[in-house]
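Quick illustration, no need to memorize.
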Amino acid sequence: MRDLTRLTWREVRGAGASGIALLPIGSQEQHAAHLPMGTDTLLAEAVLDAAAALLDQDPTPSELVRLPALPFGHSPHHLFAAAVSLSAATLGAVLDDVLDSLVTSGYRRIMVVNGHGGNDEIMRLAVKRFALRADVTVAACSYWTVTAGDGEPDGGRPEVTPGHAGWFETSLMLAAHPELVRTPVAARAPVEPPPLFDNPPYPGLTVERHGEWARVGGSTDDASGADAGAGRRLLADRARGLARAIRAFDEATVRAADAATAPAADAATIRAEEKNEDH
């Protein structure tokens, strides 16, 4: 996996001919009293880094190019404490612009890897809308959804995953960035009545009640039982899952990428120009 920031424009366009661009996105928002504002961005990057390490051991047929993480997301529900939030329309427009720039730069396959729940619906809609108007294949996922599925125990707790500033995220941060976790992590007092955004009264409902996030103190569940060992297992499982998802996306779309003669011709021209410049 190569870092777009460190590539020249010729290398970027050359990789775009048959490669895959990977865009992590996150947020800057309150994560209770013990986690940093950038938790969602840091965790999306950590899972992608770990997936990249796995793919370096057994490379994909196609070149992978990673973009810098988009650090801002849709977080109006966290402004009661602190957040840097984009509106849904702005985040959708930013994603559309980034995707459009990548296509103009020669990419025909792109994957978005999300770390913030508030981005999920907007990201998926942006991907669907963009593929309707551009000659591109785009995939999207939130990192906590791409489990490895290989039966290896990760010590997970589905009832509090992904949550917010709770056991899941805190365990992952203790594994990925322990120096940023403020300890000891205080136990979360029970809240009555229980919040509805994380535990709706009937399956299939989405329920939002005004002032709920501030009332519960900014977290979804008790994080005091989080530990680094669980976090390492959770991180390894999501990294294996993301690596497999990237490989599956590549294998499902590589023929279409090879058939895109115009980008391939651009890459050949660039390589010829580089050779002439070397001489």
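The chain has a mean pLDDT of 92.
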